[in-house]
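Please predict the structure of the following assembly.
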Amino acid sequence: MRRRAGLFGVLLSLLAASGCGVTSSGLDVRYPEAGVKRAMLASAPPRRIEIAPVADRRMETARIGSRPKGGGDIVTSRPVTDIVGEALAVEIRKNGHSVVSDRTDVVLATAVEEFRLDVVAGYSATQYVGRVVIAVAVADPRSGDKLLTRTYVGISRRRVEKDPDSNWRDVMDVALARAMHDLATDPELATVLSRLLTAFNP
Amino acid sequence: MLRAFTVVLALATLSLSGCASSAPPPRPSARPFDDLRRVTVVVSGESAFSIADYPVEPGRTFDEVLKWIPWLPYRTALGPAAKLVHQGINWVLGANRAATAAPSLDGVSPRSVVAAAMARTLKASGWFDEVLTLEREPSGEDRRRADAIVRVSVPAWGLVRVREGEPGVFSGFADVRGQMAVRGTGVIVWEDSQDVTNPEQIPVDAFLRDRAFARQEMADVLERAGERLANELLYARGAGR
């Protein structure tokens, strides 16, 4: 009898964990390092880049969206500032630069303007719209002067007939990746990083 | 006892099976193509304009009515029919809205706007010596001078609802495809498709009423689509460097 109760307990635990972390601990949004490539940012000579703590400038910071039909909040498993900061560090490193905290050539001050998942539940289909808006300011570490200010907007839209939770994370992953790809292929950002050569190492 | 354990194991496996579906979408294919310095961007395919809403009515009302039918076989048989009627009614409503918007967008060629924006972005990258845009497949000297041909299509564009609630909030959208083929061999070195949505969120009534506003909204999203495609091509090209 006791053994049967134990099995029942195991079963309940497994069922509780079956949401893959979506319902209890939130979406594990990530920018997978394996997919990151050397892009335009790599055309600048290797730089020592400091990523200042990412600021959260969202209107609503407690959640990234709401489940359809009043089903509660959608949240991420980690703070969105950590997710964005990590993605930025991966992109910069992969493009041949170093992420450092001392003797920096340049400082990247980043703010998350939006990190949001909208769910539009129709009669037979559901549409997800993920939005990631990141403001990046490139600053001179000595003078604090801003050398460049850019905003990268990644949006992903998906329509599905059913409503598996896994779509939520995928949509946000793609939105984040698009914002990062826009950053990595931004010729102005690459130019600013290249020009540092003449500014600090004449 | 063994049977109980098997049941538990089967249930556990079933409960965890949803995790496998969270794999990221397939990545666009890419091969190194550093030596392709002169590209021609060509428009291709057809484009369909639509205003995509996701209404729950009248389908929800049909469902409520069906619940009152006591005979299960009838209820089961009428369910799919109700779904079809729901789709039909909303298709007609959507088509009417699209027809209302169409005069405002006269002369806007989505493929041309996307191709021009893509070409501008590729040129600005400095990674290509020459980027041409053509409305048709290149021939003669135009074809000979190109290292590669990028074909761009916009199968769907228009407005799409991006938030729930009333009044409806919409954004411009463009679903675009791009493919880069080496001239002469026809080898495809890059292809990608992107669902592009304008960051701006607008009321659909304003779009239908104001011609200039509608044109601007669509021009913005089409240019964004061209830039997105170009950025993904540049990102893929970086792989070979």
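DSSP finds seven helices and eight strands in chain B. The beta strands of chain B are 29-30, 38-43, 48-52, 130-134, 148-163, 169-182, 188-197, 202-203.
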